[in-house]
Structure formats: structure tokens, C-alpha cells
Design a protein that fits this description.
The complex is a heterodimer of chains A (264) and B (961). By secondary structure, chain A is of the alpha/beta class. Chain A contains 7 helices and 11 strands. In chain A, β10 and β11 form a beta hairpin. The radius of gyration of chain A is 17 Å and the shape is globular. Chain A starts with 5 loop residues before the first strand and ends with a helix. Chain B is globular. The chains are: A alpha/beta (264), B alpha+beta (961).
Chain lengths: 264, 961
């Protein structure tokens, strides 16, 4: 049996979902470790010891200026190149909610053109102009993410105030939709991608809730699989019965499986 | 100081939700707005930066490269305010967290850490300047902490602050007459009575010297009502009786007499502690932050949340916070402007500000806000109530703490500023029309990320055993925190070592400042380096303020100069016993003589739409109730997640299904008829709620939080005594110990000759350990075809009810609790739930049977039928009275057909009846009497009534399927 893949769970002032994310990766069979950004920026070589990099949810640096902006700037200035190298050499990365906002601002997602880090899309204020916590249903379209199957449906909570995707231009929007960069969409009761509130809580165009990158090794999404990883998290388990494995685990399981298969 | 100014805006053609939200808010404030409103975010950067650096910084950090554009204005450049502009900036000295993050980003970019500032602006076309500013002051800003103007553009940054007044000031007090002492207390904002001033005077006469200013301030903080609970711990003459220390003789007596083995630490620490499992305990605290929230709802509520979280961090050797609760009382949100007295904010503005404050502190802290309630009554107009609670988990071996002589006094967290000076004494005074202006210094702005960093550092320090005691800086700041920890020891403090937000603070200001996000620890010398290293790793400031000693004296220095020296025994024990009169006479209330209800369905919808019943979803959704991965029972339930839950169920340890249920009870309206009824119903409701979640009534602890009017008036204090006795009698019967509590008195608003007192009320919070969260339930029925049972007895108790409120009546027949029956009902219901015989359970409270049944139907999106003839009643027969009576100790239960025998067998000692069932054939609420249909209300109507009232932005009623 191969050793458990090592997962770096990033800590930073204001990141606040690290414990449940850590536990979910543990359940999936990874060996997670916390690393504080203050430590990592001075020891970027640490990245070489990990096969999975995770930016958990929260309010990094209070989401001051814009969600994830200050942390993205700090990482870009300090270890941007090393993070890029981590992905290029086959590492897997996951950003959940604030972690996704941060990866987008860092330019690691969607990174359709490869090469360097540059921000291509924004996650803007919800059309409601406020934070909202509600369960949503996601579907995976055909996508280039190496560990995410097409046609998955999962019900997970969304909890954010800035989750509306805005691409740099219409052409990029088209690329995101047609070239497999869209990893998750919000769907309505019929299962169709939706822009309508409340199934889509922020008004994101084409219902885009998550993205992957050109390598398919980086995934980011606004909703929280880390809050739907235990069977009793599900909002209606009392009627539907407790699931054997919670829906949110599909992402953590898939990443760990892939990291293992890659021999990392 | 001149500064670069960078103004960022959303590119034309892209949505600007902040502008849109401002537009609807301004229209709501009565401004006529033509066309769209555009938002701007402004940044001021020290003029030392080069033009190139500013441009690069704005491009990469301040503006979003995809959605924003920006304009840079050079330092000293003239700026003309565009037409229609309104600018909002923080007042000097008010915490500007964003500015600090901007500074951090500058350093990350390799640029110098110059001074920074921020502001907001809106372009509101076609409006006059005066009207625009007035409207913005009402809905976009608060003058207490912000400056709003139309004509100028912020160009400069505040300077670094002036030189502090470091002189040692003595205050001549010896030989003063009573009138002069009173004046001294008033002018200094000390909130001390003449008797207390005389005690201080005598003390210093004995010492043969005058007190210094810092000594007097220390005593005022320590002896404040807020810190000492002088009224409840004092002597009360109640008719022929003399009550010594109501807290001890009633509340604490309950806990002592019950002597429950799960109580670990009660009334000793910053929170009550009960057993959880073999490794850990739970602790819980509920606080109020009423006065600050009345003046600055956003900041007041936010710092209330921050404060109660610190109470949990300061319990034992620090507990990990796992859940927040919040309960509010406001005047009706639709109060006409003309009915809002001068000096009060409009209740809708208070509501929105308070909700945003709780949201913007709790969510960034990463603590889920899992339970709450909102109550509306016109008499909360001057004194809204903001109850904030927190629950934590703590290892069993970390509960005892004791500072030792030689330990360093180490503060961890935020810096000290002038914010919140005199908060403790301010909260002990009555509010009046001028409070808004004179007390602005008592309002603070929260910074949750600093608190989060302090929390992470403190919890790591705890796990490594690096301190022998910890407490929070709350009311009274360092003076209270260090003073409490030094009790029985002594302390030597050098105030020059405290990190400051800006220069210019006098030593006494540093000592009593209530700047937020600070914890104080007692650190053995050999562990100091390690603790400081952890703080550095967690990016949080720590400072050694001094040393704990064994001298019994508190010595306050600034550098080498001693500014004050107090005997700790006098500080803590010198307060003279408070004496107060109390009387109670029942009011003259009568039940109304109403005709038979002609339209029962309409009456049900009226009750559902009453703001005290109506859905609170608009508030709940703005709170993160899922973070930390412990949520097993959510505030909203059912397939469409909009049914009101009885309480929250949390599994706080990842990987374990052991958990707790938390809920509350609050009935201010009953207090208008009889405070005893109010108190009984509060505890009964809180317990019903946790039992309906699956909590164990035999492993449940309760908290009492009093909010009352001015208790120097004998009739107010009489109400309080009466309520307390009823509360305690029932707690004994229910075997539920009080483990923590708090009181906020003086909730009375003075408007000229008129005073508006709140209805005295006790919030009871119940915390119940749950052996397995996967066996808990909600109020949402699961199966069409299941039966609906009503446990308990329905009496003619409509006094103070929602139904009579919708008819403009108060009445007299207020619900009372039959404790013996109530205990049997709680136990029997818990038994049937534990047996798995109940699949959904809802308690009957405001609105009675009708509202509870309708809420279950809404939660499950099922039809419900109920036959009023089947209900077990005593002395009540009219249909609307059976349907809307608010008799206590009742539950509605969904029971599947195959569990009927088991269910009924478990209810062997309580009255119950099968009164109807759930169906999927239709989705109506059908009320019959002996088979005759009295009303049939379709689901869409139920939803519209329930969700419409508090739907402040139209999101709840968008989808009524």
C-alpha cells in the first residue's frame, strides 16, 4: 500500500475552515498538515514535500479591500513561482470558497493560457450585495479536471458574499464554458444550470460555481464540500436517511485517489 | 498630512451591487433618487510613496483588474466634489481595519509601510446636498463613528497623535460635601452613588491623602453596576421582607440545592461549565450589549459578539468557541418616523445594523451563529436588546486557573486606543436624548481577524501549558482584567509597555480603555519566550505589562512614575452594600370581550404574519451557521429549508456524534401582565425547545439574562423580584441548574419628562447534552400519512397572546406553568423521542396550536389537518381560543402509524391526544371541529403570511412554492 498523500492545509489570519478541511482530508486517506503562510513564505521549499495544496475557506485578512486579495498578493509576492512550479510538476490544488477567491486573484485559476500567474476572472459581490448561507445543488459538466467525473451531483452549503464570476471578456467566458474550465455549475430542481436566485445564490453567469485550470490539476469552488463531508451535515438526512458517505467527500476522495495513483 | 488618493470604481456596464443597495437604502430613507447610484472605494496613502509605486499598487492590489478602474490624485492636488457625491469616512481614532490591511499589502509589495486610510463614496444623481447627506446619515453611515459630507473629498490622513498628558493628577475629595461628591461622580462619568463616593472619601481620609485620577477611575470601573451587579447582590426591602443578595439567595441557591453532578464550574468564571464527555466540558455564556447597540447598532452588536467570544476564551485556561447565539428585541420595524423620539434611531435601522454587526463579526471569526430569536414591542424604541451568546468546548484538565506571584502579566491581541472609554460606567446609566453625542467614546468598532489571531495563539498556548491563568479584557479594560486576576495576590503594572493604536493616551486612558480583541494571561517566567514565539507565528501582538505579586496591592506606573496604588481588598470588597426598595402590585388587567372569530383562517394568517412569529430567515441566512463542520440540526429545516427549528444541534468534536442542543425562551409581552408568568414561560419554552430537538431534560443547564428598566424605582425592582422567585421555583422542579447569568438594568429611555421603560424580561437559554446527534429531530414532518399528536393540556390562556395582540388587546389570562405537569411532559416527550417514536416535534409557544401546526406544515410542505374537538382542554371551548391559547408545556408530534403504540406507551403519565395528521393529498392547513370544517388555508397563503413580514429585500417571497 502506498503511503498516504501529504496535503498542505494553508493557514493564514482569517482562514477559518482549516479544521474541518483537515479532517475531511484525513477521512479521505490523506496525511494533512497545517502550514501557516507566515512560515510558508519563508520556506517555499516545503511545497516539495506535499502532493496536495489546499486553501481553505474563511476571511483571509478580513477580506479587506476584496475577498482573498491581501493573501493572494502576499503569496504572489513571496512564493508565486514556487506555487506555479508545484502545479506544473503535477501537484494537486484545491481552493474552497475564500480559498477559491484567493486562487482566482492569484491567477492560479482558471489559467487558461498556461505560463505565468495573472488574474483572468473576478469573483464579484453577490447581486444581493450581502453574505448568504444556504444549501445549493451543484453538477459537474464535462470538464478538464483530472479528478472530477462528469455528471456528478452534490448538495453542499454555499456561504459567501462575493461569488459572482466575472470573466475578463466575453471570449474568456466562452472558453470557460466550452473548453472544460467550468468544474461546477449551480443547478435548479430540473437539474439545469441556473442564474436564478436562490438556486444560484450570487447571480453567477451560466451558473458557474467552480473552475479548473489548463492542467486540470487545480480546482476551486465557492460552496463548501468541507461542510457536507459527514452524513449528518446534510440538511434533510432525517427524511432521506443518513448517507453511507457524505456527498462532499467525493472531492476529497477523488483528490486523494488521484494523488495516490500519481505515486505522490 | 497630505496623501495620495486612489479612488476605485466598478467599470461602466458591469453590475455595481453596492451602488444598487445604497440606492434602495436611500430611497427607503425618503430620498428621491434619479437613475442608478454608483459606489466608490477610496484609499489614502502616505505622500512618501512615488507616483509609480502608487500606480503599481493600485493596479495590482487596490483595484480588481477585471472589474474595476481607478483614478489617482496626487498629494496636495485640489479636489472638487462631483455633483451628487456623498463621502463617508471614519472619524479620527475609529478603528479602520481595512487601512491596516492596505498597509500590510504595501509591505508585501516591498513598499514602505506609510500611513493609510480608507473611505466610501456614492454618486447619487439629481439630489440636493443637504437631503443627500441627511439620507446617507440615516441608512449608509453613523455619525457616531463616521463623517458624512457632500462637499469635500478626503485629502489628508490624520497625524500621528499628540503628546500624552503624563502628569500624576490627584483629585481633591477629602472634606467634600455630598452635593460636591455627586457632581464629581457625574462630571467624571463615574456612575457612582453619593454613598459609594463617601466610602471612597473615607478610605482616602484614612490613608491621609487624595486619590489620583487613575485610582478613582479604577474604583469606578470595578464598582460599576456592569461589573458588580450591585442591585441583584445588594439588599432589597420587599414589603416586610429583607432580601440579602437576590442572586445568591435565589439563583445560586437553585444550583446549590439541585447539586447536579454534571455542573463543573458555576458562577465562578467567565462562563458556566458542564460535563460533556470523558475528555471535555462545555461552557456557555450569554451577554447583552444593549446601550452601545442603541447608539451604534453595527459596532455595538459586533463588539458584543466579540466580547462574549472572549468570555469563552477567558474561561478556565481557555475554551474553543464552537457556536454563537443571538436574541434581539426591537421596536416594530414599521414604526412611523413621527413615533421615534429624538435621540433614538429608527428601529429598522437598528435591526439592520445589529444584524450586520453580528454577521460581520461572527462570520469572519469562523464561529457559526446557530440559534436566535427576535421579539418586537414598541417599548424597545429607546432601548433595543441585543443578547449574544457563545458556547465553547474545553478539556477537563484545563478548567482550573490561578495566577501566581511572579507570573508575567501578558496581554495578547489588539492595541489599546481611546475607544470604549467609560463603557462599563456608561452601560450603568440611563440613556437620554443626548446620549448619542456625549457617549460616542463608549462605542467601539470590532476587528474579528485580530480576535481570531488572538484566539489561535491563546488556544495553542493553553495546549502547551504556557500560562497559569487567562481572562478577557471586557468592560473596564485592563483595569478589570488585571484587577480580577490579581485578587488575593497583587500586581505591578507599567502602562508604558502597552502597545497603542496611536500616541497621546494618558496612563489612565490606557488602563480603562475598552479597546477590543485583547486577552490577558499570567505567564510563568520560564514559559514567556515560548508564548511570545507562538504569538509571533500567529501574527498577533503580545506585550508584557507587568508582574503579579504577593503584596495585596495594585501598583500602576508609567515608566518609573507611580500613578496609583490601591489595596486590592478595598477594590474588591470595599463597595458598600446597596440598599433598594421593591414593591409589587398586580396591574389592573382584564380579558377583552371579543365576538366569536368569524374567519378562523384569516386569524391564523394574522398570527403567522405577526412579526413575533413571522420567519426570521432574512436574518438567519446572513449568518454562517455551517462553519466548523458541527451542524447536525440547523436553524431552518425541512425539504425547502425554511421551517423554523426549535433550536440548534451541534456535534462540536470532529469525528464524534456526541453533541448538544441549544435554544432559548423569551416572552416580554407576558411581563406586562405578570412578570412571574413571563419568567416561568421563558424557562418552560427554553426547555421545550431543547427537548423538541432531542435534548435530555435531565442533562440540561440553563442561563438567566435579565434586562430591566430602572431598578431604583421600587415597582420595577418588585417586578424583578417576583419574576426571579417564579423562575427559581420552576427551575427547582425542572431540576435545571443555573450555571451563568447576567443582568442589564437601567434599560429606560428619558425623552424630556417622559420615560420609556422596556418590559422587564428574562432570556432563558438552555443547553442540553445529546448522546448522539443522529438521533435528534426537527419540527419538519417526514411522512405523509403520519399522525399528529398534541401532548399537554390547553387552557383558556390568551393574556399577552399573539392572537389578542393582532386584535389590539393585551388581556389578563396570561399563561402560567403547572410545574409538576410540565416536568412530566418534558420527560415523557424526551422518552418517546429517545424511543424513536416521534419523527418530528415542535413546541407550542407564540400563536399556540394554530401557529405550531402551520409551521410544521410549512417546514414539511405537507398538508395538515387538526380537529379541535380532540384537543385535551380545561375550561376552554371557543374554537379560536383552543387554536390560539398559549398554554405552556405542550408539544406537537409527528408519529408514524407503525409507532403509535410505542408512542402512547411512553406517555403513560401525561395527557395527550391524537388530533390529526399530515397528508400529501393537498398542502392545506385544515381545521375542523368534530368533522365540521372550520377553515382551510392553502400552503401559498401560509407561506406568504409567514415569510412576508420580515422580508426586507424581497428575497424570501420570491419563491413561494
Amino acid at each position: 500500500m502506498t503511503a498516504a498523500p501529504r496535503a498542505l492545509i494553508l493557514r493564514a489570519p482569517g482562514i477559518n475552515c482549516e479544521r474541518e478541511t483537515f479532517h475531511a482530508f484525513e477521512l479521505a486517506g490523506a496525511a494533512p498538515e497545517y502550514v501557516h503562510v507566515k512560515h510558508l513564505r519563508h520556506h517555499p521549499e516545503l511545497l516539495e514535500r506535499f502532493s496536495i495544496f489546499v486553501a481553505p475557506g474563511g476571511f483571509a485578512y478580513g477580506d479587506d479591500i476584496a475577498a482573498g486579495r491581501v493573501l493572494a498578493n502576499e503569496l504572489r509576492q513571496s512564493i508565486g513561482d514556487q506555487l506555479l512550479a508545484f502545479v506544473e510538476r503535477g501537484g494537486l490544488a484545491l481552493g474552497i470558497c475564500n480559498g477559491f477567491q484567493m486562487l482566482v486573484r492569484l491567477g492560479l485559476l482558471p489559467r487558461t493560457e498556461g505560463g505565468s500567474l495573472s488574474q483572468q476572472v473576478a469573483l464579484s459581490h453577490n447581486l444581493s450585495d450581502h453574505y448568504e448561507c444556504r444549501w445549493v445543488t451543484l453538477r459537474t459538466p464535462a470538464n478538464r479536471c483530472v479528478f472530477l467525473d462528469e455528471g456528478l451531483t452534490l448538495t453542499v452549503p454555499a456561504a459567501h458574499g462575493e461569488g459572482r464570476l466575472t470573466p475578463r471578456d466575453a471570449a474568456l467566458g466562452e472558453t470557460l464554458r466550452t473548453e472544460g474550465y467550468t468544474a461546477f455549475v449551480y443547478v435548479d430542481e430540473s437539474g439545469a444550470a441556473t442564474e436564478s436566485y436562490p438556486a444560484n445564490p450570487n447571480g453567477s453567469p451560466s451558473g458557474i460555481a467552480g473552475l479548473t485550470d489548463v492542467t486540470g490539476r487545480v480546482l476551486g469552488l465557492m460552496p463548501h464540500p468541507d461542510r457536507a463531508y459527514l452524513p449528518f451535515h446534510a440538511p434533510d438526512w432525517r427524511r432521506a436517511g443518513l448517507a453511507e458517505r457524505a456527498e462532499g467527500m467525493v472531492i476529497f476522495d477523488a483528490m486523494v485517489r488521484t494523488a495516490r495513483a500519481d505515486g505522490n | 498630512m497630505d496623501a495620495w488618493r486612489v479612488e476605485v470604481r466598478v467599470r461602466d456596464g458591469l453590475p455595481d451591487p453596492a451602488g444598487e443597495a445604497a440606492r434602495s437604502a436611500l430611497i427607503g430613507a425618503g430620498l428621491e433618487v434619479q437613475g442608478p447610484v454608483r459606489s466608490r472605494r477610496g484609499f489614502l496613502l502616505g505622500s512618501e510613496l512615488s507616483a509609480e509605486a502608487v500606480d503599481q499598487f493600485a493596479t495590482t492590489v487596490l483595484a480588481d483588474p477585471i472589474t474595476d478602474e481607478f483614478v489617482v490624485h496626487a498629494p496636495g492636488a485640489d479636489a472638487v466634489a462631483e455633483p451628487g457625491r456623498v463621502t463617508i469616512r471614519p472619524r479620527p481614532g475609529v478603528t479602520d481595519q481595512v487601512a491596516r490591511s492596505v498597509q500590510k499589502a504595501l509591505v508585501d509589495q516591498g513598499l514602505p509601510a506609510v500611513l493609510t486610510g480608507t473611505y466610501h463614496a456614492y454618486l447619487v444623481p439629481g439630489t440636493g446636498a443637504a437631503a443627500r447627506v441627511a439620507a446617507a446619515e440615516q441608512c449608509l453611515a453613523n455619525e457616531v463613528v463616521q463623517i458624512v459630507d457632500a462637499d469635500t473629498v478626503p485629502l489628508a490622513l490624520p497625524g500621528p497623535g499628540g503628546d500624552p498628558d503624563l502628569a500624576v493628577h490627584t483629585v481633591p475629595i477629602r472634606g467634600l460635601e455630598d452635593a460636591a461628591l455627586e457632581r464629581l461622580s457625574q462630571q467624571g462619568g463615574l456612575a457612582l452613588t453619593v454613598r459609594e463616593m463617601r466610602t471612597i472619601q473615607a478610605h482616602f481620609e484614612g490613608l491621609g491623602r487624595e486619590p489620583t485620577q487613575i485610582e478613582l477611575e479604577t474604583l469606578a470601573q470595578t464598582w460599576s453596576e456592569h461589573c458588580k451587579h450591585k442591585t441583584l447582590t445588594g439588599r432589597i426591602r420587599f414589603g416586610d421582607e429583607v432580601i440579602d443578595n437576590l442572586l445568591k439567595s435565589e439563583i445560586a441557591r437553585v444550583t446549590r440545592e439541585l447539586d447536579r453532578d454534571f455542573c463543573v464550574s458555576v458562577f465562578e468564571d467567565n462562563a458556566g461549565v458542564i460535563e460533556f464527555d470523558d475528555e471535555d466540558c462545555l461552557c456557555i455564556k450569554v451577554e447583552t450589549h444593549n446601550h452601545p447597540s442603541a447608539i451604534e447598532p453595527f459596532g455595538g452588536a459586533a463588539t458584543g459578539v466579540g466580547g462574549v467570544i472572549r468570555d469563552i476564551l477567558g474561561t478556565g485556561l481557555s475554551a474553543r468557541p464552537v457556536a454563537n447565539t443571538d436574541v434581539f428585541c426591537f421596536a416594530p420595524a414599521d414604526t412611523p418616523d413621527a413615533d421615534v423620539p429624538k435621540g433614538c434611531l429608527h428601529p429598522l435601522r437598528v435591526l439592520k445594523g445589529v444584524v450586520a454587526g453580528v454577521r460581520d463579526y461572527g462570520n469572519p471569526m469562523g464561529i457559526p451563529t446557530v440559534h436566535g430569536a427576535v421579539h418586537f414591542d414598541p417599548d424597545f424604541i429607546g432601548n433595543p436588546l441585543v443578547y449574544v451568546g457563545n458556547i465553547g468546548i474545553i478539556p477537563r484538565d484545563k478548567i482550573q486557573k490561578r495566577a501566581r506571584p511572579g507570573d508575567h502579566i501578558v496581554s495578547i491581541g489588539g492595541r489599546t486606543g481611546r475607544d470604549g472609554i467609560h463603557g462599563a460606567t456608561f452601560s450603568s446609566l440611563e440613556l437620554h436624548t443626548e446620549s448619542e453625542t456625549v457617549s460616542s467614546g463608549a462605542v467601539q468598532i470590532g476587528d474579528p481577524i485580530t480576535e481570531r489571531k488572538a484566539m489561535d495563539a491563546v488556544l495553542r498556548g493553553r495546549d502547551e501549558g504556557l500560562f497559569s491563568a487567562v481572562t478577557d479584557c471586557g468592560a473596564g479594560g485592563f483595569s478589570s482584567a488585571v484587577g480580577e486576576m490579581a485578587e488575593g495576590l497583587g500586581a505591578d503594572v507599567d502602562l508604558a509597555t502597552a502597545p497603542l493604536k496611536y500616541a497621546g493616551l494618558a496612563p489612565w486612558e490606557i488602563w480603562i480603555s475598552e479597546a477590543q480583541e485583547r486577552m490577558v494571561t499570567a505567564v510563568p517566567p520560564e514559559k514567556l519566550d515560548r508564548l511570545l514565539a507562538i504569538c509571533d507565528e500567529e501574527d498577533v501582538e503580545a506585550a508584557v505589562l507587568g508582574t503579579f505579586t504577593d503584596t495585596g496591592r495594585l501598583v500602576l506606573r508609567y515608566g518609573d512614575v507611580v500613578h496609583g496604588e490601591l489595596e486590592l481588598e478595598f477594590m474588591h470588597e470595599g463597595l458598600p452594600v446597596f440598599e433598594r426598595e421593591a414593591v409589587w402590585e398586580p396591574g389592573d388587567h382584564r380579558d377583552p370581550d371579543l365576538p366569536d372569530e368569524a374567519n378562523l383562517g384569516r386569524a391564523l394568517l394574522d398570527c403567522l404574519a405577526d412579526p413575533n412569529v413571522a420567519s426570521k430567515e432574512w436574518i438567519i441566512r446572513q449568518y454562517d451557521h455551517e462553519v466548523q463542520g458541527g451542524s447536525a440540526g440547523k436553524p431552518l429545516c425541512g425539504p425547502r429549508r425554511d421551517g423554523p427549528s426549535n433550536g440548534a444541534v451541534i456535534a462540536p468534536k470532529l469525528g464524534s456524534t456526541k453533541g448538544f442542543a441549544v435554544s432559548s425562551g423569551l416572552n416580554p409581552r407576558y411581563s406586562r401582565i405578570d412578570p412571574a408568568a413571563m419568567a416561568e414561560c421563558a424557562i418552560d419554552e427554553a426547555l421545550r425547545n431543547v427537548v423538541a430537538c432531542g435534548g435530555d431534560p435531565e442533562h440540561t443547564a440553563v442561563l438567566d439574562n435579565y434586562c430591566w428598566g430602572n431598578c431604583s424605582k421600587p415597582e420595577r425592582l418588585g417586578e424583578l423580584v417576583r419574576a426571579t422567585r417564579a423562575l427559581c421555583a420552576l427551575a427547582i422542579t425542572y431540576r435545571t441548574p443555573f450555571i451563568s447569568g447576567k443582568d442589564s438594568l437601567n434599560n429606560e429611555f428619558r425623552d424630556g419628562d417622559r420615560t420609556i421603560a422596556i418590559p422587564g424580561c428574562i432570556l432563558v437559554t438552555a443547553l442540553s447534552v445529546v448522546p448522539d446527534v443522529t438521533r435528534t429531530l426537527t419540527s419538519s414532518p417526514r411522512h405523509a400519512g403520519s399522525h399528529l399528536y398534541l401532548i399537554g393540556v390547553t387552557r383558556r390562556e390568551l393574556g399577552g397572546s399573539v392572537y389578542w395582540k393582532t386584535r389590539g388587546e393585551l388581556g389578563a389570562s396570561v399563561p402560567r406553568v403547572d410545574g409538576a405537569l410540565g416536568k412530566r411532559v418534558l420527560d415523557a416527550t424526551a422518552r418517546a423521542i429517545a424511543a424513536g417514536a416521534i419523527t418530528a416535534c415542535h413546541d407550542l409557544s407564540e400563536g399556540g396550536l394554530g401557529v405550531a401546526a402551520a409551521e410544521m406544515a410549512i417546514a414539511g410542505r405537507l398538508g395538515v389537518s387538526l380537529d379541535l374537538l380532540e384537543v385535551r382542554t380545561e375550561g376552554v371551548s371557543r374554537a379560536e381560543e383552543v387554536l390560539f391559547s398559549e398554554s405552556q408545556s405542550r408539544f406537537l408530534c409527528e408519529v408514524p402509524a407503525d409507532r403509535v403504540a410505542d408512542f402512547e406507551a411512553n406517555l403513560y403519565d401525561v395527557p395527550f391526544a391524537r388530533i390529526g395528521g399530515f397528508t400529501a393529498d393537498h398542502r392545506d392547513c385544515v381545521i375542523t371541529r368534530g368533522g365540521t370544517e372550520l377553515a382551510r388555508v392553502p400552503m401559498a397563503d401560509l407561506l406568504r403570511a409567514f415569510k412576508g413580514t420580515l422580508d426586507f429585500d424581497g428575497t424570501l417571497t420570491e419563491d413561494l412554492r
